[in-house]
Amino acid sequence: MSEIRNLEPKPLWNKFADLNAVPRPSKKEARVIEFMKNFGNSLGLETFEDEIRNVIIRKPATPGMENRKSIVMQGHLDMVHQKNNDTVFDFDTQGIDMYVDGDWVKAKGTTLGADNGLGVATIMAILESKDIAHPAIEALFTVDEETGMTGALNLKGGILQGEILLNLDTEEDDEIDIGCAGGVDVTAKGSYEREYAPLHTSGYKITVKGLNGGHSGMQIHEGLGNANKIMNRLLFETFEEFDLRVSSVDGGSLRNAIPRESVAVVALPQAKVDEFLGDMEKTVSDIKAEFATTEKNLQIVIEKTDTPDKVMSVDAQQKLILALYTAHNGVYRMSADMKDLVETSNNIARVLVKDGEIMIGCLTRSSVESSKFDLANALKAAFSLAGYEVTFTGSYPGWTPNVSSEILKVLVDVYKKQNGDEPKVVACHAGLECGILGTNYPGMDMISFGPTIHGAHSPDERASISSAQKYWKFVLEILQNIPERN
């Protein structure tokens, strides 16, 4: 970690290195919670956790700042766990292995945890500092942001005392976020009849891999490939003509990550194998041509494997493939109110077909609540026609922009002073926790910003070193310019 710890600003990168040594998967945050509580207690600061295990640390204002409005500095403790298929790594026991590549900090074959580790490290560095001027601070470290916003959803009113919230979970350093999308998990489940594979068939494994993946909110408009949709397209174009029979499908992983890989095991009549392989060669060529710009490393591999004992019935297979083809993936509607903002989208994140059971998991996002459920109901209709049971869970609200925000004016003025140009004041298509926190703290003035991070939620995640330096200066001056109490 020495090359990371020697980067500037050292207070930020040292705390990030400390944090990344602690395993912190979503819903398994016990170790990082204890780490954060020990950190707060070691500084002699008031430190406690609430009922859902969010950690709160309070630090009094520095001399001369007592009359400023109190602030909440907020980040989430958990991180998305993704790795390349050839990377041997145990997220439950290992710390992230980082290195420097030019202007970027990266991880070796895994997600980096800069989302939201750099935000958390920023807060830790300020809590530990003895020479940074700031008003009274409540540091709020939420849990389980990445897989359900559980910490924010269960933070009760009355715990926080701050008047302004600084959320440090934005991923472009020239952007100031004043709004975000809400979301809902749409899950379809069903069962199917299994039957013995027909006689005189051969087993084949179809693998879609090499896709970029990425954040299913922030990158949903980039035209990236979704491994589940590509796999289903391959199956759709071959199952009737070549009597292909599906034994299993396993694609995608996390709800908020665009799927990078999918694997299907199928059975093919031996008499049609050559024709099938020839036809697939053209189909694969077409798909690669379509994604030539956005997915240069896309691979579709078809290889012989053991013939499966059991396959889906023809009826069940047809319903699955048609339902997945019908289900919307990607941008559903652009905002009519904010230029270039995705309003509503869906990510078909997970497809698992195995041993008679089917599970399809989607994350539907929108900055308009009615539009969110319009798309969710469209998905429900597609999956219900196939006979699956569809549930909506984990719904969380969006964050309505406040263009008259007092703290927004502070950030815009500081940014212009430091950089000589205007920041982009935007709403994002990611699921920031501000909207949720605002339900129990409706009077709190909220803003979100952060350093530049690319490829979040994928093993290509990387954090810009020069941007971290720019962002650190931004944070320090914001703290000095928090408005006075009325």
From TrEMBL:
SUPFAM superfamilies: Zn-dependent exopeptidases. It catalyses: Hydrolysis of dipeptides, preferentially hydrophobic dipeptides including prolyl amino acids. Its cofactor is Co(2+); Zn(2+). PANTHER family: CYTOSOL NON-SPECIFIC DIPEPTIDASE. GO terms for cellular component: cytosol. CDD domains: M20_pepD. One of its GO terms (molecular function) is metallodipeptidase activity. InterPro entries: Peptidase_M20, Peptidase_M20_dimer, Peptidase_M20C. Belongs to the peptidase M20C family. Keywords: Cobalt, Hydrolase, Metal-binding, Metalloprotease, Protease, Zinc. Pfam families: M20_dimer, Peptidase_M20. Its EC number is 3.4.13.18. The keyword Protease applies. Residues 207-288 form the Peptidase M20 dimerisation domain. Gene3D superfamilies: Zn peptidases. This is Cytosol non-specific dipeptidase. GO terms for biological process: proteolysis. The keyword Cell membrane does not apply.
